[in-house]
Design goal:
Helices cover 30% and strands 24% of the residues. By secondary structure, the chain is an alpha/beta fold.
Amino acid sequence: MKLLIKKGRIIDPSQGIDQIGDLLVEEGIIKGIADDIPSDQYTKVFWAEEKWVLPGLVDIHVHLRDPGQEWKEDIETGTKAALYGGVLRVACMPNTVPPNDTPEITSYILKKAEEKGYVKVYPIGCITKGQKGEELTEFGRLKEAGIVAVSDDGKWVANSEVMKRALLYAKQFNLAVISHCEDPTLSQGGQINEGFFSAKLGLKGIPWSAEVAAVVRDLLLAKETGQPVHLAHLSCKEVIPFLRWAKEEDIPFTAETCPHYFSLTEKEVEGYNTLAKVNPPLRKEEDVLAIKEALKEGLIQVIASDHAPHSVLEKEIEFSLAPPGMIGLQTLLPLSLNLVKEGWLNPLKLTECLITNPAKVINVEPPSLKPGKKAEFIVFDPNKTYVLGPDIIQSKSKNTPFLNKELKGITVLAVIGEKIWELNWAV
C-alpha cells in the first residue's frame, strides 16, 4: 500500500529539516520527501496543508499504572491516549504494584503491550528493590528482559552511596539512570509550593531547596563516576545555575521538564484544586519563566508529560489526602506548542526536545523521516482549537487542570508501519 502526505510542513529533527513538501510511504517504509510527488490509482492521499508532519513523539516519563492499579489506567488505554497525543513511543515508570524490580514484571509489561498496546512501550526498571532505596536491583537481568533505564521515580534514592553504586552499575549495562529529584527530608508532608499560597491555604509547603539539594548531589555523583544522570521533571528557577555550572564542568547529565511547569503556576491550587496537585509542585511565575529560559538555553533538553492518572474518587477528596499527579499524554504537544508561539523555541528545537533528545536519554534510535526508515510519524494540526472535554480524553482518568478548557493543536493522523489511524476527536 502507498500513502502520500501532500503539502505538509515536514519537520524532522533527525535530519534538521523544516520544509513544505510531500512524504511518500510504501509498505510501511518511508520512501522519500520531495516538493511534489505524483500519486497513482493505488495511492492513498492525505492532504496536510497548514499541518505539521513529524516523527512520532518519544515520552520517557509516563505512568501506565499496569500492573496493579488498572482502575486508574492500563497499558491499552494509556497507549491509546499516547496515540491521540502523537506520542508513538512511551517509557513507563516502574512504580507499579508490584514495582518493576524483576524480569517477570518487565516481561509482563512487554507482553501486554504487544497484545493490547497502540504504541511502542519501553519499560523502566527500579533502581532499588521495592523502591526502598537500600539494595540495588539486578540491572543485567532487567536489561535482558527489556528495560531501557532505571529509576525509583516517585522517590529519590536518598542514600548517596547506593546512588553512586547505581550509577557505576548502570555504566556496565549502558542504562540510563533517571532521578526523581526531591530530598524527602525537606519535602516530607508537603502539599504545594512553599510560600504565599501554602500559608494562605494552610497547607505544608515543599521548598525549592528539596529539588536543588537532590539535583546538586546527583550532579556531583555523575561527575565522580562519569556516568550520566537524567534529572526528571525540574520545576524551579533555583536549580538553573547549577545546571549551567554542570554544563561548564562537562558533567554528564540531561534534564527534563513537563508542560505544566512552563504553563501553570501555583495559583492553580486556589480553592484546593486537587487536579493541580503535582509532585514536584507548581511553582511561581518566575519559575515558569526560568524553565522556559533553560529550555531555550539548552540546559533542559527534554520535555516529558509525567502522565500520572488518578481516578475521580482519589482526587475528589480532602486536598491533603489526594495523590499528586495529572494526566498529560494528550496535552503534551498542544501545550509545548506554546513555546513556539511565544518565541522561546523554533519548531526544530521543540521537536528535538520531544523526539530526538528523549530517545537519546534511553539509548534508542529516534523515529525519523529518512528514506528507508519504518514509517512512524504523525500529522498535527497546530491551528485547531477545541475544548478538552472528558469524552475526548482517551485515558481512564480525567485528572487534569486543563479539563474543559480550550486548547490549540491536535493530532489528526498517526502512522506506525502499515497501521494508519485517522483520529476522530469529535471536536
